[in-house]
Design a protein that fits this description.
about 120 residues; alpha/beta
């Protein structure tokens, strides 16, 4: 990845079939998505440790009105444990990456925040 060039990091629901141009698909949830086989997911990896911890995930409960506070807390967790995202950062440096998640809400979920964090790290 060239200095100053932002990597290609997209986000999609894990239930959407893999697209040919989306690069390496990484599951970024702590819990495996219901009703999905590993083959159907088409994953390059599972970044379980990069997901919000259980207490934060349960507190958030995918409530949009809690998202701003969730974002701050989750970013604090990521900054406190950068080693949890090392495999993802290596994938980002290698080429396009798609962060996949199981939540229904495409705007208020951990993949949105994790993408922001990874782009911030890539700029540094």
């Amino acid at each position: 990845m060239k200095r100053g060039h932002l990597p290609a990091i997209t986000i999609r629901r894990v239930y959407a079939p893999p697209a040919p141009d989306e690069g390496a698909r990484w599951l970024v949830d702590r819990i495996w998505p219901r009703g999905l086989t590993k083959d159907a997911a088409g994953l390059a990896g599972w970044a379980k440790e990069a997901a919000p911890d259980t207490a934060l995930r349960q507190w958030f409960g995918h409530e949009p009105d809690r998202f701003a506070k969730f974002r701050r807390r989750y970013l604090a967790q990521l900054h406190a444990h950068p080693e949890a995202t090392e495999a993802l950062m290596a994938a980002v440096r290698a080429g396009p990456v798609t962060l996949v998640y199981g939540a229904h809400d495409e705007t208020h979920n951990n993949a949105v925040v994790l993408r922001e964090y990874l782009l911030e790290r890539a700029r540094a």
